[in-house]
Amino acid sequence: MKRISNYFLKSIPLSLMLLFVACDDEVPVENTNALNPEIFFESLAQVEAAVNASYNQFQVLYQRNGYIFPDAMSDEVVSSGDPNFAPFNRFELNATLGGIAQYWTACFNGVGACNFVIGNEERMRTNTATNDFSQADVDDALGQAYFLRALYYFHLVKRFGGVPLKTDLATALDDTPRATADAVYGQIIADLQLSTQLTFPKGTTEVGRVTREAAFGLLGKVYLHREMYTEAQQAFNNINNHSLLPLENYRDNFSETGEHNDESMFEIGYNGEVGTESERWAQTGVGTSEVTFHSQEYAGWGNARPSSKVIAEFEDDDPRFDIAILEDGTSYGPGDAFEFPCPGCGGGPVWYKFSQLYDEESVSENSSVNVRIMRYADIILMQAEVELNLGNNTGAVDLLNQIRDRAEMPRYGTATMDARGYPVNTTEQIFDAIVHERFVELCAEQVRFDDLIRWNLDDQELSIFPDQNFNNPDESLRTVRVYDPTVHRVMPIPQNEIDSNTEIGQGDQNPGY
């Protein structure tokens, strides 16, 4: 990463402030490119511009790779032969795949942008005495940067394991060895703990920015991944001001018109504008950084179709199915006025979630549908899992039933659900219900692959290809998927990082690559 990150960090003072805020299209961003870096952080606009730049690389990530990797590697998706999807769907990974290098670079560029804010805390606090921003503004700026740095590192540690820890602006240009995964998680937790103390609560800051509730939500999620259940419970208990949308508004969780609703806790924003052809691929806060290909790839081209396995997981009367997945002949769009396939689309089944088809008749590459990184339904399901692990079985079932009630589905603990194969009389049965509910509620939201790993169910669930034969009684007809949990839980360290970082050699590569 040396050549890439060095260039990025050296260019921060002059060019970073052009980047558009990733969380909300309506947040005003001043063009501060002409400002002298020696006198930066001398106005509220400059502070906000630096923070805005910290969001940008998530737009780059979720323009494509951020959703491809975890979805394609899960059992929710069967991909076409598209080279962006197929290697990950088939676990044919190697260190020279361009998408992996792009992902690594975007995350570390994001870390660098966050470090620029965090590393200038003293300067910002000193400048409050003579400028138009307060100590509270500095707190919020730092809180956002700590959250975003933690989120970039959470993406990195899940996909690669231990990675270089770069948290000091003064040494950011130095080659750095891989830290352990435990050390990376320790830094993530420390950053999020600070973020919970510094960020503003929901409703007191611009829509789209990191909030205190989002910080507690991500902190609880990280604690859950680390099996720190008491700490996770405490973090989740600090979340308020969010609620589940009623079923009639459920599609707002995935549509452009429903962005920043009461269930959404953190989003990556897109505005659908690519500008000129030269701006389109510039990845500097304009062009494709302002659009996502998700709608075209999932709903239009069908490069990542819903697997037979995830389709079979839905109960026959689950209304969430028609809001998540489109099949031939089903209605879609505003008022369900159109019939799938859409113009220019292939046949179904395809993903409805996060497509333009909730609001439009067709799709395009230049989608402006925001990516929901975290929503309240996920929090409730994680709370259920935490309570189960703390021995509160009744509380776990009650939380699960909040999700069932919203979907207007039969509740767990009833004869109906017992008959459907989901009794909740034992800890093991409640866990099975959690697995089921997360599968259908959060499908195609980039959580399933990581769930299977932390549950140690990945070998069981990912070793058979999730096509129409995934549950064939004749095991010889099932398609074996080349999945090895000792290898494929993480991706390879990009070869260009090994080649350019003197502190990382081929011997530091992840096993199996």
Features:
mainly alpha; about 525 residues; two-stranded antiparallel ribbon; globular; about 45% helix; about 5% strand
* Element pattern in H and E: HHHEHHHHHHHEHHEHHEEEEEHHHHHHH
Overall mean confidence score, pLDDT: 90
Main beta sheet strand tally, sense and closure: 2 strands, antiparallel
Catalogue the unreliable spans. 1-36, 283-288
Radius of gyration: 22 Å
The secondary-structure class comes to mainly alpha
Strand content: under 5%
Count of helices? 21
Number of extended strands: 8
In which range does the helix fraction lie?
40-55%
Shape: globular
Terminal Cα span: 19 Å
Commentary on this structure:
By secondary structure, the chain is mainly alpha-helical. The chain has helices at 2-15, 44-63, 65-72, 86-89, 98-118, 121-127, 135-160, 181-198, 212-225, 229-236, 277-280, 294-300, 308-313, 320-324, 376-389, 393-406, 415-419, 427-441, 448-454, 458-462, 495-500, and strands at 77-79, 264-268, 304-306, 325-326, 331-332, 338-339, 350-351, 371-375. The strands form four sheets. Strands 1-3 form a two-stranded antiparallel ribbon. Strand 5 (331-332) and strand 6 (338-339) form a beta hairpin. Helix 2 runs antiparallel to helix 5. 51% of the residues are buried. Mean pLDDT is 90; it is low at 1-36 and 283-288.
Strand and helix map with partners:
Elements: H1 2-15, H2 44-63, H3 65-72, E1 77-79, H4 86-89, H5 98-118, H6 121-127, H7 135-160, H8 181-198, H9 212-225, H10 229-236, E2 264-268, H11 277-280, H12 294-300, E3 304-306, H13 308-313, H14 320-324, E4 325-326, E5 331-332, E6 338-339, E7 350-351, E8 371-375, H15 376-389, H16 393-406, H17 415-419, H18 427-441, H19 448-454, H20 458-462, H21 495-500
Antiparallel strand pairs: 1-3, 2-8, 4-7, 5-6
Helix pairs in contact: 1-5, 2-5, 2-7, 5-7, 7-8, 8-9, 9-10, 10-15, 15-16, 15-18, 16-18
